[in-house]
Hints:
The complex is a heterodimer of chains A (155) and B (147). With 155 residues, chain A is an alpha/beta fold.
Amino acid sequence: MGGGHEESSGHGGDRPWVYFMIDSFFLVTQFFVLTFKLRIADDLVLPHRLPPGGQGRPTETTTAPKTPVGITVIRSIENSPPQYQMNGGELLDERAVTQKLGDIVEGKNPDNYSVRISYEGKGVIFKDVMPIFNTCLKLRIKECGLQPTRQQSRV
Amino acid sequence: MNKVEVDMVPLIDIISLLLMFLIIVGDTSANSTSVRMKLPSASEAKQDWGESKNRIVLQMKLEDGRYFAVFNNRSYDMGGALKERLAQTISDAAGRNEISKRDDGSWAMPVKLRIPEECPMNDVEKLLATVAGEKLTDVQYAVRTAN
């Protein structure tokens, strides 16, 4: 009569499978955590290129000038939807301005266009400007950036 | 009388596995998504596979009515403090030859910006100006898919 201890030798004793199971469980769990948590935790991204120094100037000097497209984001009343004005024209909603931008570039080389986004009013938030960045990426307009505001002493 | 012996090997084994598990999980969750926010949506969003190990991740966080930039879990005032921190990071990476300077003077070091959708554009512009001022031009805006 006696316990299993007399027969135990080293790792596991008379039930080594318990320890293998625990080890395997943790190793598999860590594998899945590392593999999938890193993927799930990462956001989706929208790539964008800033002009160096943030001056709002084109990054390269080209002999052929690009057609400027100025879009102003306006939110005159805080909780009202944003409005967009393209090249000083009529006020448009998000859908209309993205459609209009697409119409301008359609059938032409998007590298010939430079989109500059400005905003008016303290109520303009990042969400209002994102559709313009998104549309520029969709239309492959590489030059798309913020026009520095006059309040910025150094951009 | 039977002598009771504690088998130390499996105990050490399990404790080390537990420690590794907690360290890895804690570390990966802390760094890149430590600030909870609602991201703007974009239909052209691309999957982010964490392209470069030298990528900087900047997050905007609202504290006491003001937005601060969070970098490696520390908050920085946009402008002076953040500018210095970015310059230091670039300098360290360049010193280790991990990044190079392009012909246009910009650094080949991507920057991921996690900006909440409700962040005022004034603050976003300050952040972009600081980033661009340090010649970091490859920017990735963190977004969610448009429904």
